[in-house]
Write a structure and sequence with these properties.
Helix content: 25-40%
Distance between the termini: 33 Å
Order of helices and strands: HEHHHEE
Number of strands: 3
Oligomer: single chain
Strand order of the largest sheet: 1-2-3
């Protein structure tokens, strides 16, 4: 639950957000060794993303997606990240299941 949105009510009432995160990196070492030390610790990524989502407030989910992408690219040895941010049950649009944005960012 977090407070992201342009409208004043969205800054006061926590809303549900869902994120999809796809990390692109060479996983051959992890696949052959079955060792967590040879891959990305998803628990660590989750905690970093949770802190961004829950402890900050952005007007736009586009900014939230970019902030998450920048944090992941800045901390983890990945080549590319895809982020999907879903604003589920938008406050002012009861007939919609969600609004979403999707971005892809890479080091190159």
């Amino acid at each position: 639950m977090a407070k992201h949105g342009v409208f004043a009510k969205e800054k006061l009432i926590k809303q549900q957000f869902k994120l999809d995160i796809v990390l692109h990196l060479n996983l051959s070492s992890a696949a052959s060794s079955d060792d967590l030390h040879n891959t990305i610790d998803y628990g660590s990524v989750y905690e970093d993303v949770r802190l961004i989502v829950e402890e900050h407030s952005y007007n736009l989910i586009e900014k939230l997606a970019q902030t998450v992408a920048d944090a992941i690219l800045g901390k983890y040895p990945i080549d590319k990240v895809e982020i999907g941010v879903y604003k589920t049950e938008p406050l002012f649009f009861e007939n919609l299941d969600y609004f979403a944005v999707f971005i892809t960012r890479s080091r190159h």
